């Protein structure tokens, strides 16, 4: 369903608001209580359906906002990012649209691709991970001038954004397409991911609140998010080749009483776990390693199991 059909359908459910189609725009009677008690006679609230998140403006009282504001007022269905992303035909996104749309958002230039970042929508799930969690870790929705939508996880280190990874909204079916792309930011002279981990700050916050908790080190963002969802301190290495000394230093500096290595149950995961364990132990960290069954990863851990692992390694 396209956005306009969705909106018309919703408006028809609102008593007494019967949308009118004037000059290719949808007009309804303004529900603002400060405008004729919310029951003006002729429609002066216009809804613009061209944007990804439709907006409205009342020419009578000046009230304006997004579809979701209006939906809340009228008790109608809100739009979430997933709805938009699935349903927006790409050809309606012109570059001028992109420049107007989300004009308040941060514009990033990455090579020749211009993109915009907005906060992730708290009501939108991404690959089984709940919206409020994604919002909490600072996830962003990215729209680029090729009309592609992505999710982005900025890497924060002590409040400073040091880099980010960007992921497809849907798992690519083509195995040749990587699920995650790292930004090219540098820390000193090395790529940021040689020194930093993903979700450092939020994991550190959890450890600060409860220093007896262990710190889990996992491979990918989704593994870490799954644990963070349960309040478990976890950081993502960003792959199994990322065991540089600078990164070991970052992990050590998190001052966890216990570091638990939790890599995927495959060859790459097992060898990364060995390297990590050796390097961390050399720095006098107290390290344990959890071996997952072949073919499994931390994302598949049931909540109960994840929680009991955390209890097991408390100090
Ligand atoms: Zn009004």
Could you describe the 3D structure shown?
There is one protein chain. The protein is 30% helix and 23% strand. It is α+β, with helices and mostly antiparallel strands. The protein is built from eleven helices and 17 strands. Residues 82-110 have low confidence and may be disordered. It is elongated. A six-stranded antiparallel beta sheet has the order 6-7-8-9-10-11, with no helix packed on it. It has a five-stranded antiparallel beta sheet with strand order 1-2-3-4-5. It has a four-stranded parallel beta sheet with strand order 15-14-16-17, with helices on both faces. Zinc ion is lined by residues 30, 32, 35, 45, 58, 60-61, 63.
Q: Give the overall shape.
A: elongated
Instruction: Count helical runs.
Output: 11
Secondary-structure-based class equals: alpha+beta
> In percent, how much strand structure appears in the residues?
15-25%
Order of helices and strands: HEEEEEHHHEEHEEEEEEHHEHEHEHEH
Order of strands across the main sheet: 6-7-8-9-10-11
Mean pLDDT: 82
End-to-end distance, in Å? 53 Å
Name every ligand kind in the structure.
Answer: zinc ion
Helix share bin: 25-40%
Largest sheet: 6 strands, antiparallel
Poorly predicted segments? 82-110
Number of strands: 17
- Rg calc: 24 Å
Keywords summarizing the entry:
315 residues; alpha+beta; 5-stranded antiparallel beta sheet; 11 helices; 17 strands; binds zinc ion
